[in-house]
Amino acid sequence: MSNPSSDLQNFRESRQIMNEKILDLDHLGIKRFFNLDTNTYRDGALPSQTKELLGLVASAVLRCNDCIDYHLEQCAASGSTKEEIIDAMNVALVVGGSIVIPHLRHAVQTIETLENEGAL
Amino acid sequence: MSNPSSDLQNFRESRQIMNEKILDLDHLGIKRFFNLDTNTYRDGALPSQTKELLGLVASAVLRCNDCIDYHLEQCAASGSTKEEIIDAMNVALVVGGSIVIPHLRHAVQTIETLENEGAL
Amino acid sequence: MSNPSSDLQNFRESRQIMNEKILDLDHLGIKRFFNLDTNTYRDGALPSQTKELLGLVASAVLRCNDCIDYHLEQCAASGSTKEEIIDAMNVALVVGGSIVIPHLRHAVQTIETLENEGAL
Amino acid sequence: MSNPSSDLQNFRESRQIMNEKILDLDHLGIKRFFNLDTNTYRDGALPSQTKELLGLVASAVLRCNDCIDYHLEQCAASGSTKEEIIDAMNVALVVGGSIVIPHLRHAVQTIETLENEGAL
Amino acid sequence: MSNPSSDLQNFRESRQIMNEKILDLDHLGIKRFFNLDTNTYRDGALPSQTKELLGLVASAVLRCNDCIDYHLEQCAASGSTKEEIIDAMNVALVVGGSIVIPHLRHAVQTIETLENEGAL
Amino acid sequence: MSNPSSDLQNFRESRQIMNEKILDLDHLGIKRFFNLDTNTYRDGALPSQTKELLGLVASAVLRCNDCIDYHLEQCAASGSTKEEIIDAMNVALVVGGSIVIPHLRHAVQTIETLENEGAL
After folding, report:
1. CA pseudo-torsion sign C26, C21, F55, D69
2. Residue F16 and residue D66: Cα distance in Å, rounded?
3. What are B's interface residues with A at a Cβ cutoff of 8 A?
4. What does DSSP assign to residue B45?
5. How many CB atoms lie within 10 A of CB E54?
6. 3-state secondary structure of D80
7. Hey, which of B88, E68, E81, F14 has its CA 20 to 30 A from E102?
């Protein structure tokens, strides 16, 4: 079993480096999409905290571990508790079925790392 | 263009009739799944209202109009406003991309019907 | 609620007409794919009956009603019973989650029509 | 079998009415997404004609009939021939598998309607 | 190329550790889902052996390597031969298209490891 | 962060070894599918160069990194420029949504490796 803590740290670094390279491509459509994506989770009719949970569940049913990790961090940062995050993941599990289980395993590893970091 | 109001009413009736036929099949696994599904959206660490929004966004990114209609009704019944529902659909649109747009069109039709019925 | 029996009959007719038009396009790659597809479900290491159940479950988790209808007919024709078909659909429901439920409703309608026709 | 020609006309009208209602919701994120979506297919490093074929194949493997219809119209309008469109659909069929076949049937119906209208 | 044999062993260990952590979360809905999932593949109208093949094909078309590995082990344990498993994977390939090929490569690696272990 | 250059080299070697093992299975259906897949991207009504871009976008919206890497190599080999490839990936991003972003990051890493190799 690999080290979940350094896995998450590697993902964070790789994500930042590659996002910068993507913006450096200077493709206007891609830059606008990234800007739109960031703004989506700002407080609006729904608070940011709820929208990060929506992003987490969408990522889980679409089965994207990198997206799950990113939204788990944002859920913790916007004030959701571990119990609320697990309850959201249960919705993803029931909607998306057993095919979501490997991603639930991944999420629980990341949640543990965030707890160890004091971020959750 | 068909009549969205009678479309929604047809869906409700068809959904109820067919769900009864499914439970009449008397397959223990299927019956337990339906029971589990219902319980998922009850108040827990997250309130039912939030979980219905999670169900809505999961249904939208997985692109299932029947599931969207069902969760729109439940979102309205559990106290979400039209503005909150639209803000949740925007998360689904950005996560899921332009392929979600036809389902956003469908959702906006159903939202209008729910408003006309006084349910939203 | 529309008439499931005539819905299935319409699907059969439309499917045959359109498949002929597709083959008339005379695109070699498409013709070879259709030929390959037909041969897939012939007796091999696994009997045709089992492979039609595999095709049914694949269609259900990928959530394609037309494909479900086609494989339900082939499952019935290759000797599976209603109980076996329902047990296969339960696997699809658990793997694919509640998003499969509308397709389970559709399948149960088609199964009823096949029973009424004496085909199952 | 329903009337493919009026089906396409209904889709066009419904699409326009609902898109206007969506923009009337006045959600900034949604409006920006629609704007971004439109700009995506303008001439850039790749010509619009190629990008509409890319949009068609993406719609086909993601199995969205409304999106297929929209991009078929745009492919015809931007100068692709029927033979080129069919060759693009063959790529979608091989990448996406037999689950794409019902959408290929739908596409061939729409192509026929576009031919009858003199648009292709 | 990594070592497929130790990859599979790592997956088994990680899967067991993480499943225990998931059950330790003590979320009733998640625990019931796991229980339901296990029961799905027990002998019913269809024998366990057939249902494991259904689970394998569902996992392959939904493109989940961890799920493929799990069901390959269960297929071998419930008595399917290598030839039957390959014939099932061919159904997944034709239904799901060339996008399934990387998962077919993964499956063939795991099958080889199971053969080397004497499990298949 | 792992080494993208050796990652791509490992993928190439693993892909070749495993494809040979798949063909050695001697399953007629699988062999015919692989043959069909190869022929799909040959010059036809559309040139190979355009069809590789179609394969790339289909792979990106279906979110398969191995398929993205393969088609990136083929896009470069068939004469597409980096700017054209990025413009195609932007279509995939808008159609497929933010869930495609991790695969865009992967693609940009591979594009950089192909540039370093002088292949793009």
Report:
1. positive
2. 38
3. 36-37, 40-41, 44-46, 50-51, 53-55, 57-59, 61-62, 67, 81, 83-84, 86-88, 90-92, 94-96
4. S
5. 29
6. coil
7. E81
Domain boundaries, chain B: 4-117
Neighbours of chain B (3+ CB pairs under 8 A): A, C, D, E, F
Amino acid D64: pLDDT: 98
As for the ipTM of the complex, it is 0.97
- Name D110's Cβ contacts closer than 8 Å, sequence gap at least 6: D4, D8, D68, D69, D72
Q: Residues near D68 by Cβ (< 8 Å), separated by ≥ 6?
A: D56, D59, D60, D103, D106, D107, D110
The residue type found at B95 is: V
DSSP string, chain C: ---HHHHHHHHHHHHHHHHHHHHHT--HHHHHHHHHHHHHTSSSSS-HHHHHHHHHHHHHHTT-HHHHHHHHHHHHHTT--HHHHHHHHHHHHHHH-GGGHHHHHHHHHHHHHHHHTT--
If pLDDT is split at 50, 70 and 90, which confidence band does D67 have? Answer: very high
Judged by CB atoms closer than 8 Å, whether chains meet at C54 and E53 is answered as: yes
Burial of D1 (0-12, 13-18, 19+ CB in 10 A): exposed
Cβ-based neighbours of C37, under 8 Å, separated by 6 or more: D98, D101, E94
Place of tokens 């989650």: C97
Q: How many C-D residue pairs are in contact by the CB < 8 A criterion?
A: 47
Q: Which two tokens stand for residue A92?
A: 């993803």
DSSP F44-71: SSS-HHHHHHHHHHHHHHTT-HHHHHHH
Per-residue model confidence as pLDDT tens digits over B70-98 = 999 999 999 999 999 999 999 999 999 99
CATH number of A4-117: 1.20.1290.10
C-alpha distances (whole Å) from E12 to each of E16, E21, E102, F18, F114 are 6, 14, 21, 22, 35
Exposed / middle / buried, residue A13 (Cβ in 10 Å: 0-12, 13-18, 19+): exposed
Look up residue E97 and give its amino acid.
G
Mutate to test the interface with A, among D25, D26, D33 (most CBs of A within 10 A): D33
- Hey, which chains touch F, using 3+ CB pairs under 8 Å? A, B, C, D, E
The reported pTM is 0.98
- CB-nearest partner of B45 from A58, A84, A96: A84
Q: How far is the first Cα of chain E from the last one, in angstroms, to the nearest whole number?
A: 23
Alpha-helical runs (H) found in A25-100: 28-40, 48-61, 65-77, 82-96
User: What does the pLDDT look like over D31-50, one tens digit per residue?
Assistant: 999 999 999 999 999 999 99
Of the candidates B39, B43, B35, the residue with the CA atom closest to the CA atom of residue B19: B35
Write the secondary structure of chain E as one string of H (helix), E (strand) and C (coil).
CCCHHHHHHHHHHHHHHHHHHHHHCCCHHHHHHHHHHHHHCCCCCCCHHHHHHHHHHHHHHCCCHHHHHHHHHHHHHCCCCHHHHHHHHHHHHHHHCHHHHHHHHHHHHHHHHHHHCCCC
**CA gap E111, E108 in Å, rounded:** 5
* Residue of C32, C36, C57, C99 to mutate when probing chain E, most E C-beta within 10 A: C57
Digit-coded pLDDT (tens) for B35-48: 999 999 999 999 99
d(CA B8, CA B39): 24
